[in-house]
Design goal:
Structural class: little secondary structure
Radius of gyration: 11 Å
Strand content: 5-15%
Strand order of the largest sheet: 1-2
CATH architecture: 2-Layer Sandwich
Distance between the termini: 10 Å
Length: about 70
């Protein structure tokens, strides 16, 4: 079973991210983590997530983990 990014929305603090842009979304090298609009929570797609962990490392609030 492969790992994938999972967002803990209770820890996600987009109001503290730079201009409401999720740092984890910007860090995804494959552009697979999506943010519909500024100040909206990022949405991983389990079907296409490669489990590289870059988004998890980039999130300053540790709201994204690999499972």
């Amino acid at each position: 079973m492969r790992k994938m990014a999972v967002v803990d929305y209770g820890k996600c603090r987009l109001e503290l991210c730079d201009g409401g842009v999720c740092a984890a979304v910007a860090a995804c090298p494959h552009h697979l983590l999506k943010q519909e609009a500024t100040y909206t929570a990022p949405m991983p797609d389990p079907a296409i997530c490669r489990g590289c962990g870059q988004c998890s490392l980039a999130c300053p609030f540790k709201a994204i983990v690999l499972r």
